[in-house]
Amino acid sequence: MILRTLIRNTNLLISTLLILSLFSFVLAFLFPGDPLENLSGLTNLSEQEYERVFLAYGFDQSYVTQFWIYLNKLFEGDWGLSFASGIPLWQELSLALPASIELSIYSLFVSLMIGIPLGFWAGFKYHKPADYSLLAISVVSYSLPIFWLALILILIFSLSLGWLPLSGRVSLLFDIPEVSGFMFVDIFNSEIDNKNAAYISALKHLIMPTLSLTIITAAIIFRLTRRSFIDVMSSQYIKTAYTRGLSHTQVILRHGVRNTLLPILPLFAMQSAVLLTNAMIVEFVYSWPGVGNWLIQAISQRDYPAIRAGMLAVSSLVIVVTIMTDVSAKLINPALVGENHAEN
Amino acid sequence: MRRIDFYEDDLYPSPLKHTWQEFQKSHIAVLGMWILAFFIVLIVVGPFVMPFDPLLQNPNAVLLSPSWEGSGSLQYILGTDSLGRDLLSRLVYGCRMTLGISLLLVMIAMMLGVALGATAGMAKGVRSSILNHLLDSLMAIPTLLIAIVIVAILGVGLVNSMWAIALALVPQFVHNTREFVRNEMNKEYILASKLDGARKLHLFFYCILPNMFELLVVQCTMALSIAILDISALGFLGLGAQPPSPELGAMLSEALKVAYKAPWSIALPGLAIFLMVLSINIVGDGLRAALRNRLTQ
Hints:
The complex is a heterodimer. Chain A is mostly helical. Helix content of chain A is 75%, strand content 0%. Chain A has helices spanning 2-30, 35-40, 47-56, 63-76, 89-124, 129-143, 146-160, 183-189, 195-233, 236-243, 248-286, 291-300, 304-332. Chain B has ten helices and two strands; from the N terminus they run E-E-H-H-H-H-H-H-H-H-H-H. Chain B has a two-stranded antiparallel ribbon. In chain B, strand 1 and strand 2 (10-11) form a beta hairpin.
């Protein structure tokens, strides 16, 4: 059973990734301009050079061969060059992606820490003032447009109060070489004098982007947890547990918590995709050098190779995260297996 | 839910009426509905009552603060922006654009999604299996991400972003319709109609659709709030509506340059988006709760 789930999802993962890379290949032909330039990112070539690139990408052969060569190049890390900067896209992406992942992971962690306990608390106080006020706060916070929220935070904490820095990941005074793309790891590995000051600076830069992401994600997680807890507590087996003479605490700890969290685990998978999208907007507002900011710049500059590579990277990341969360949810909770495709 | 009338007949409300009664029990939901109604009235009558054209620039009144602050003037109640355009008029036109476009997009997405979903729900075999797999993966990707991808292909602009969002909203409608239709198809009242010789089209329009109405309304409110957030987000990122168009997101991104001097020009358009989305979410929540209460009774 477990093996079947794993195989099925690996198949799904591989075929989806293949479709995504095919899609990104086709994009080079759909975009305006020369497909070869869109694939390689090389512009203004002399005739001999063009001929060389033409052969290197297999453009004298069938589309199937071209796609095969493209796939090989993807695996070798040769994603082409950016029109705007002329830097290899793989190099740019390998610095931009970790920055986005870093931001998303921190805010996901904080959101879970806030959302789940509050969800239980509200479910506990179902239809009491505490529940109503938490519910009201959650509706308000997930209705907030994230870009506006980020701007308001800037207006309050940077411009009015001057407590937190406006943009970026770390103060420009620190010259930290970007190796892994994860700021704290890079600071740790760097050879600057005052590392502690750099840590504090990085932390200060992190607060506002994380906060604006957290406010919205925590509200959604809160609502999922609360609804699930209420549904569980009104079910038959909880009543049975009470009739067996278990105390309130025992019922909740033994039956409530576990059964509340199990069904919402796969929903968190969807939230991680939403979180990543929101992170893209937040990056744009705070000039955070992540993949979202990078992709949006590429779209406005009509940097077609960068759009192609950025979209492939972002969508692959979303798919990988979604499928992995889905698989782990199914492994923890076998009741989910077959639910999606029960009819097949 | 039983009311007794003068002749002591038992009164059983129709399902729609019943949901409406349940909905009205929540005062907050009704309040949300009134705010939403206010916005809808605003987008209809707004252009007739607004004092200024949203694109009219007045070089003598640049960056005026709202009228209740020191340097404000009563002529421009909510102040002006960096080109001397009346903020109130721009806001009203902005709501008109953002909400109006979103309503249109949700309608398009709903029709397309329901048609596809119904076809998928009634189909069997390989065709439905492929569609289901595709949908499951599409559902996992947020609409804004799909919209950004589509905008990247089509190019930047309001019309392109509208297409993008409409297409991005479709999978959710397809998914929900398919699930619902599939469940209903196994029920006995459908079997009865089938035995009467009803064709699929008849089955869908006369048997399933009436039962699906409330679900669709709930789904539409969710899609509407997503559409508003997405269209203004794309405008804000410079991928959708372009300045000087009074789209709320585009207004926000224009106001960024003067955020220091005119914080109200950032606060107000965002507040408008927030209030619209909030009222829609409250109504949606209220409807969902009402449906749940009706079905559990």
